[in-house]
Amino acid sequence: MYLTHALHRGVRYWPDRVLTVDGDRAFTTAESAERVARLAGALHTLGVHEGDRVAIVALNTDRHHELFFGSWWAGAVANPLNTRWSAAEIVYALNDSGSKVVLVDEAFAGIVDRLRAEVDCLEAVVYVGRGEAPVGTLVYDDLVAAAEPVEDARRSGDDLAFLLYTGGTTGNAKGVMITHRSFLTSLLSYQMSGAAVRADGVTMLTGPLFHIGALLGWYAQQLLGGKLVFVPTFSPENAMRTIQEHGVTGCALVPTMIQRICEHPDFGSYDLTSLEFIGYGASATPDSLLALVMEKLPHTQLVHVYGMTETGVLTVLNGPDHRARRKLGSVGRASSVVELEIVDAEGRPVPPGTVGQIVTRGDHVMAGYWNKPEETANAMRNGWLQTGDGGYLDDEGYVWIADRLKDMIISGGENVYSAEVENVLAGHPAVASCAVIGVPDPEWGERVHAIVVLRPGQSVTIDDVRSFVKERIAGYKAPRSLSILDEMPMTGTGKVLKRELRASIAGR
Amino acid sequence: MYLTHALHRGVRYWPDRVLTVDGDRAFTTAESAERVARLAGALHTLGVHEGDRVAIVALNTDRHHELFFGSWWAGAVANPLNTRWSAAEIVYALNDSGSKVVLVDEAFAGIVDRLRAEVDCLEAVVYVGRGEAPVGTLVYDDLVAAAEPVEDARRSGDDLAFLLYTGGTTGNAKGVMITHRSFLTSLLSYQMSGAAVRADGVTMLTGPLFHIGALLGWYAQQLLGGKLVFVPTFSPENAMRTIQEHGVTGCALVPTMIQRICEHPDFGSYDLTSLEFIGYGASATPDSLLALVMEKLPHTQLVHVYGMTETGVLTVLNGPDHRARRKLGSVGRASSVVELEIVDAEGRPVPPGTVGQIVTRGDHVMAGYWNKPEETANAMRNGWLQTGDGGYLDDEGYVWIADRLKDMIISGGENVYSAEVENVLAGHPAVASCAVIGVPDPEWGERVHAIVVLRPGQSVTIDDVRSFVKERIAGYKAPRSLSILDEMPMTGTGKVLKRELRASIAGR
């Protein structure tokens, strides 16, 4: 299994179909392959050899597409970096990965000098933005135009394909090593599990291309034929306009993105009927949001995926389950060839209904963390990847996430799963979004604390919150204190930054 | 990737659903898994250890299902043998594979003594047939009932899963080594290519379970949930009755089977509307037959698969292409992650339209021939499996089979592809089935010779045949001589035995 396969296949099957669209720039499959072969030639000229890393830090663009294929074609490893990161974090990841080349766009023009000064391994900084290239950078299009195309190095199987940094917001970023085989196994296993990317569809790439979720959709659509439409950054207007203009059939979104689309005042003025499929995940999804999207987009299949960079797609909850309003709180069942268990602290499987840690093994699992044998050994025990997520199986094998183990609150000796409380609280009419954390408390050990962002013109008190939650779930799970924020702190991939909330609210 | 996964998964997801049906015998998933774990225990008791081979020679039965999983569960390799073989061929394959246990049914009761006498490696012969067990055999059900269930040995990845003997009719049978990974990769790649086995369907297993084609459908249906209905041996009545009775949604058939169903006098008296999907392949399919089946089964998607034991599914021609009557003579495009090329005698890729040998590489390819390093080296060159089939790519990447290279006729210096002539001849109204071979000829080197089986009450002359063919394709391709047979000699998997025709007609 090797990832440049999709491009060779596309050239043989549909060379003249448009493959990539980015604003007013479009390339056919044959043009794209020609550019990739030239980019690989340029990378060789810049000193990139077999196994080397090549980075990109840019908003979503067709340059990502070309860089990923170009890296593999040159025999290298693609290292797309988180665009929400600080300059220090980017410098750290580039040094840690030993990337020889980095592509930057206009948003990162301001840090080029710093990259050149602080990242010794860099042979070149290449500018993929609009407007004039910053001093000290090479111009991407000139580089591609001037280079001679080279033969595909055809790395495959256990060779590294991606280095994907996670956890960067903590200062302890780890590079997750994804091989050609692990990426393709995850993708094939997911596709076999039912409703997913379809042949000859149009996939909109609005989720960030440094994230495994967007990468799987990006690749699957090519393997099956179809068009890729790159959207630099998410906004509800961008997404709706793109869906209408290009007849988008599928995309991957995080719940907050779906909510912002469905609640947008101009929702009704766009034709979104081409949209057959939304894959969503990456954070807990309130039932109220699912009800909303099924009402607003009645023709769209919803597919929940659960997984992480280290594993690709682990579980799938398919469209039909959504329409039947069946098991909506579950993340679904393990995808077709994924092995998944719930284990206790000693690694022994627990019976259905019992919460434990979700672990998984198989060809879909990462090869380890780059240059971090200790962290790798911690994450992989006897071949099982430790997800760090708590959850349980029901009697039909559906997985229910209890919580990130580190997000579990122990209050008065009771385990409180923040995700459960958040799911209830999200249904409160005044609440636009919410998070629940544990804060130190002299009486309870930890106390349940709610953070909410209110809908326009609404207000809420801690008593309102307590009684709303207590009417629905056990009283000990109800928040005992409340913060109201204007905006929820989020990661680049749409997850609530609980660590940041804890630091600011609980002082730890 | 490991093959007992489907059973574990089934037990978790749908333990109480009926999984296997064989006549009046039915087992749920949980019952089936329990029996498999016991059978594995029994195999251990009989001396079967990690990596050992366990054989079965029987008409299709749920015992195949149990034996395959039981072998893997015990850490062993499943070795299902061709039921059309002579006793000598079966003895050869059992000795060659070193199988420790063989399961036989009533059709092979008569050779038990010979197996015991001539196969030294055998620890036990187990009887899976009806009626009284022959002397010297163990009774399958007693063995399973008496055994203690054991833990799954969970062989996986590059471990051997199947030993599948091919070419047995020639006396030079080779054991094709299929690993857990190669089997699953072929299956996932195929499923991703579109219309195929569907979730919660009912698969009828009427094609022989010693053949890779039937095995892939058998496994896919389990992984996706659903029911397996075993039919001991194919007849049009059996097939139609089973489809009606069990609401069969899919099956794999060879072209002659499809023809016999569609032309059966009782065709109209069965309800076949549940049948959504027929996968077919294994021999050339005349356009006239495809037209017939699309007319007779208007609700059924036809999917052509091309491949061989050594490779699993290589190419797929999907349902929509059939309905659009598009490229029907092609075998389709390479399945999603399969790498396929057409090469010349030196192994160099040839341009579209040029005939060469079809070669393939990737995780779907066999690990080699059992105990035959020389044959393996001949078949695998620089990682590419040499299929021995001649074919070409068109300008959309569809594969067209010219011929088995050894079946190509060179007549008067021109290459004649027997498949092309057969496709034309099959459309002759008097012809029920046909084959075309080359026979030695003093004038032409080889001359094109047709063998036909006539429809009832019809007759045909060599002049009829020549003029019918010459009206449709180049004159040098028209047969110069003709044999009329009552029945076409076929292999157990429905392929015309050209070697036998050559021996009897051309004297070689």
Automatic annotation (TrEMBL), chains A, B:
SUPFAM superfamilies: Acetyl-CoA synthetase-like (SSF56801). Pfam families: AMP-binding, AMP-binding_C. It comes from the Bacteria. GO terms for molecular function: ligase activity. Keywords: Ligase. Residues 420-495 form the AMP-binding enzyme C-terminal domain. Residues 10-370 form the AMP-dependent synthetase/ligase domain. InterPro entries: AMP-bd_C, AMP-bd_C_sf, AMP-binding_CS, AMP-dep_synth/lig_dom, ANL_N_sf, ATP-dep_AMP-bd_enzyme. This is Long-chain fatty acid--CoA ligase. It comes from Nocardioides panacihumi. The lineage of its organism: Bacteria, Bacillati, Actinomycetota, Actinomycetes, Propionibacteriales.
